[in-house]
Amino acid sequence: MVKGLFPIEELSARRTPFYYYDSALLRATLAEISSLLLRYPDWKVHYALKANFNPALLQIIAEYGLGADCATGGEIQAALDAGFAPDGIVYTGVGKRDEDIRLALNAGIGRFNVESVAELQVINEIATAMGKVAKVSFRVNPDMGAYSYANITTGLTENKFGIHHTMLEDAVKQALLMTNIELCGLHFHIGSQILDTADFIPLCNRINQCLELTDRLGVTLRDVNVGGGLGIEYDHPNHRPMADFASYFEVYKKHLHTKLPVHFELGRSVVAPCGTLISRVLYVKEGVHHKFVILDASMTELIRPALYSAYHRIENLTSEEAEEVYDVVGPISEHSDVFGKEVKLNRCRRGDLIAIRSAGAYGEAMASHFNCRPFPEAFISEQ
Ligand code: LLP
Hints:
Bound molecules: ligand LLP
Helix content: 25-40%
Strand content: 15-25%
Mean pLDDT: 95
CATH superfamily of the largest domain: Alanine racemase
Number of domains: 2
Distance between the termini: 18 Å
Largest sheet: 8 strands, mixed
């Protein structure tokens, strides 16, 4: 049944490894987001390009009217090329380069999420020189953890991100004095792969406090951006192919006390489930204690297991034989080039097609050329 999800014959004909994207699942996910947003008419989801900037996927996402969350000038250009509206683009990052700031101002992007007063001063100088006004939100460091995934926490005092919430008042006062800065909003992001939506409640409380502060300072904001971070079920991609967007939106509806439009920046939850890294078994190697399946894919196509010990479900698409237990590894000479240990797979033989699931986010986008390996192709199903 699981194997029925994949067009095996088409996949078998291709050179491995490659990324397979299920466009029907991506469209269903985008349709789910759009239909939930009908309940919250002035809310907006920006797709975080860092999760996957494959141009064909970007075009599909842009069709559904999402905004774009960009981390560099390169991502801003990719969003513009794919057809995202410039005023729906937000630009976040602790180290924005001058030329990228200029590109963003020229394109007329909707918002700079500013992470320090030093950056604010530079944006003001560049905007002044260009005769433009930069629309700005302050990214606030709320000193809140995302408890689900310690590696991917971005909202703690020790993290480099954002203006610490205790320093917000001073930053707002400075922004109000700058001629070419329009302070429009506040922005937050506490981490990624958050499955327990209760993790967002302390964040809402902190946002409420920050909004009281901006009210007290007499600033009229246009919106509040609560970041991304919604997790997906890596363990059960077949049973739960879509993130729980409904609960995610509800928690903000319930716990944020504001009439301002709420904006989101979702990456993983939009694209992770629709992507699979398809690879072939090169060798089955008998070790003393383990049997190794050596794939032609490696950490250069999907670094998440090596970098974060992240779990991705692995399936043998071309075998119906009884299951055996394998360590599934890549060919690279790095001891972390392992996709999974003690994985149960239908008996593997050389040439079998192996699917590494939920690889649509932070897979292709984080690929590298290590070992002179070429970037693999992407194959997008036409459903
Ligand atoms: N907005 C900001 C400011 C972010 O830093 C991120 C992700 C997002 C939005 C999108 O978050 P998402 O919805 O995808 O959780 N490479 C790691 C993930 C790092 C995420 C960093 N920031 C991984 O492979 O799990």
